[in-house]
Amino acid sequence: MGMITTLSEFYAPAKTFAYGIYELILTVTMTKSPSLKSSSSAYVRITPTGITANPVELGTSMVTRGHQQNLLLDPGAYSVDPDEDSFNASKWKYEYYCRIYADSYSFPNLQGVLLSIDDPRIDPLNPSCLASRSGNETQLIFGNLTLSPKSSLTILAGSLQSNQTYQFMVYMENRQNSSIQATGYVLVTVTDTQPQLVAVGCVIGVMCVPNQEFQVLNPTTQVALFTVCVDICPIILNISWNIYQGEQNSSSNSTQWSLFNDISLYENIWFFGKTTSNFTATNQLFLDNPTINFWRFEVVYTFISETSSSALNFVMNQSPTNGSCSINPQNGSTSTLFTISCPYWFDEDGIQDYSLFVWTKDSSEKVFIAFSSVPDFQVRLPSGDNQTSLLNIMIYVRDLLDCVTQVNMSSIRVVQNSTEIYNLIDNLQSFENGITNNEIVQLL
């Protein structure tokens, strides 16, 4: 499908442009008088999106594995590069780390330098996940040693302790540019049973942005999840979903989870698909619980002889804070240049842009006027209410993960510039030179 370049809006699908800097030029020509035209341009830089490092399928946050089962971590197969049709595992270097996810243990390190899972050195304060190894017994098998060395890791059965939870981290570094890096995490709960491996992912991948061991979620967004049985699963007797709210424990560098008890109360109101492989939680869950920053959605599969659980963890994205917006002057006409100033806004993810909306009487009919990537910009505005000339203004301050703070501003008065309109009509009728000096023509 080709790009349409003859409309007032321009849309380029993802992956249209290669990395680089492009100049986009907009030329507006009056239909009745083709000699009257105006152009404006903007420079756009196309940069790498950045990969998502997934140790297990779909970027699942937590899986269950048996003490007597092998555990496969395969970021070379499961990682995602949004800029490419498929992930090229051979472009990356891989290192794996593991810690016991309890009792205040950190990733093993010596003087702050992390010890990889295959490093024989010992951190006396943070025990190795493979503490049960003896002699030269092989417990780790790295895969794809020729084409993409260490792009997968198999931890052999019996290497991990039962009734223990481990956190695995994979660090990936681009072979051609070491400054391009990615990190992926997964929690593994080890049991005495033989559970099947179940993966949990987001139905719309772009709605779930990874941030270390969590997926970042905007509070105005619903969660739509699906599950995949990675192993060859036997007859499934039951599927059920649980929701947990979390609190970070800074002393143990972990998150403590407690069951959210109202899932049955709001079934088919906030929650849909509680006993199916597809589950949806509406944004009302987050809007009604604004103080809860961490959420876990867990699916439990029940088979004839065992159960298996997996989960996806979320952290709520915080909207931009600490700023304000103003407009100057407070009164003007449709030809007045109004200055919008929005200083001091802060967001951990960075501010993406500022969008300006206006309306006269009904806020549900607000109209988008302009946006800017900088906090100070100038615009011309349409006229206000027919009787009062009042124009209501709202600014959307958006962060890089699309979380928005709405700023309601004081109404201003904008009147129609009748003189410019009459001059435009006269000039169009006479085709006099200098018509492009008319401010309305410049707006067009």
Describe this structure in words.
It is elongated, with a radius of gyration of 28 Å. The chain has a six-stranded mixed sheet with strand order 13-14-21-20-16-17, with no helix packed on it. It is mainly beta and 444 residues long. It is 6% helix and 41% strand. It is built from four helices and 29 strands. Strand 1 (20-29) and strand 2 form a beta hairpin. The protein has three domains: 1-47, no CATH class; 57-316, Immunoglobulin-like, CATH 2.60.40; 319-417, Immunoglobulins (Immunoglobulin-like), CATH 2.60.40. The protein has helices spanning 75-78, 284-287, 418-430, 439-443; strands at residues 20-29, 37-46, 62-66, 71-73, 92-100, 109-110, 113-114, 140-143, 152-155, 164-174, 181-191, 198-202, 209-211, 214-217, 223-229, 238-249, 254-259, 271-272, 278-281, 294-302, 307-316, 326-328, 331-333, 338-341, 351-359, 367-372, 376-379, 390-399, 404-415. It comes from Adineta steineri. Residues 8-430 form the PKD/REJ-like domain. InterPro entries: PKD/REJ-like. This is PKD/REJ-like domain-containing protein.
Q: At the fourth CATH level, what is the homologous superfamily of the largest domain?
A: Immunoglobulins
CATH topology category name of the largest domain: Immunoglobulin-like
Overall pLDDT confidence: 88
Give the low-pLDDT segments: none
Reported CATH architecture of the largest domain: Sandwich
Oligomer: single chain
User: What is the radius of gyration computed over CA atoms, rounded to a whole number of angstroms?
Assistant: 28 Å
Specify the structural class.
Answer: mainly beta
Q: What percentage of amino acids are in beta strands?
A: 35-45%
Main pleated-sheet profile: 6 strands, mixed
Overall number of domains: 3
Q: What is the number of helices?
A: 4
User: What is the number of strand segments?
Assistant: 29
Reading off the top of the CATH hierarchy, the class of the largest domain is best stated as Mainly Beta
User: Which geometry do the CA atoms define?
Assistant: elongated
User: How do the strands line up in the largest sheet?
Assistant: 13-14-21-20-16-17
The helix content is: under 10%
Head-to-tail CA distance between termini: 29 Å
Protein name: PKD/REJ-like domain-containing protein
Organism: Adineta steineri
Pfam families: REJ (PF02010)
Domain PKD/REJ-like: 8-430
